[in-house]
Design goal:
The protein is built from four helices and twelve strands; from the N terminus they run αααββββββββββββα. By secondary structure, the protein is an alpha+beta fold. The protein folds into two domains: 67 residues; 133 residues, Immunoglobulin-like. The strands form two sheets. Strands 1, 3, 6, 9, 10, 11 and 12 form a seven-stranded antiparallel sheet that branches. Strands 2, 4, 5, 7 and 8 form a five-stranded antiparallel sheet that branches. α1 runs antiparallel to α2. It is elongated and about 100 Å long.
């Protein structure tokens, strides 16, 4: 039995473009539904003394199954290409590197969360607040150093009453102002060694200090300084050994 003008052409359904693959899938679904409708109608109205030949519609089913598998293969290839183009292959090279990423969120783990914030200009006063996932301020303090440039901030994970808060993701909010009351712009970062890379919802994420950050927010990359390799096997440093 022939489906007619809606029959999907396997050759034209294997294009690599997203729109063509979507169109091919839609055409396949339409053709298959039409085929089943015609098949059911023909079976209901066939002559009992001359039943229809099952070979023809079996071939149609095999053809449609082949096209469906080709479309699924195209989807998998698109996903693979998407993974590569979205940076996961490049992000893997960051594992073990010390990086800085522009983000105001950090993970609280082992009783601490770390941020770095940079003030564009010197401020008269700087307020630092830590917010939980619900946007509630769980810690607030006034900074003692208001000069322009980078400032490190480490939070001990304790709430207003001194209670230890659960591990998770927290946000740092920095509000700085000059002597004349004008706002001073600031940028917040997290910095640390990248320990893993993964992809979530099409976005390549790297893990820094236990928290995940989109890899395209990385602003600097450095090689961690070696420590143990600078010592001799007998425990002496190169300088003491020379002495």
């Amino acid at each position: 039995m022939t489906v007619g003008a809606t029959t999907t052409n396997p050759t034209t359904s294997t294009t690599n473009s997203s729109s063509s693959t979507t169109t091919g899938a839609d055409q396949l679904a339409t053709s298959f539904n039409t085929f089943l409708t015609l098949l059911t109608t023909q079976m209901k109205n066939q002559d009992p003394t001359s039943p229809m030949d099952s070979t023809q519609f079996t071939q149609q089913l095999v053809q449609m199954t082949g096209v469906e598998q080709q479309l699924q293969t195209n989807d998998l290839l698109k996903q693979l290409v998407g993974n590569t183009s979205s940076g996961i292959s490049a992000a893997v090279s960051l594992i073990g590197k010390d990086v800085r990423a522009a983000t105001d969120t950090a993970a609280l783990a082992n009783g601490q969360a770390k941020w770095t914030y940079a003030l564009d200009t010197a401020a008269n006063d700087t307020k630092i607040e830590v917010l939980d996932a619900n946007g509630t301020v769980v810690h607030a303090e006034e900074a003692t150093d208001n000069k322009a440039g980078d400032h490190s901030f480490t939070w001990d994970g304790k709430g207003p009453s001194g209670n230890k808060l659960p591990d998770g993701t927290y946000t740092l909010r920095v509000t700085a102002s000059a002597a004349n009351g004008a706002a001073v712009n600031s940028t917040t970062y997290v910095q640390g060694v990248v320990t893993s890379v993964e992809q979530a919802n099409g976005t390549t994420m790297i893990t820094i200090n236990g928290g995940q950050v989109p890899w395209d927010q990385v602003t600097s990359i450095t090689q961690p300084a070696a420590t143990a390799s600078n010592s001799n096997t007998d425990g002496q440093t190169p300088s003491s050994a020379a002495a």
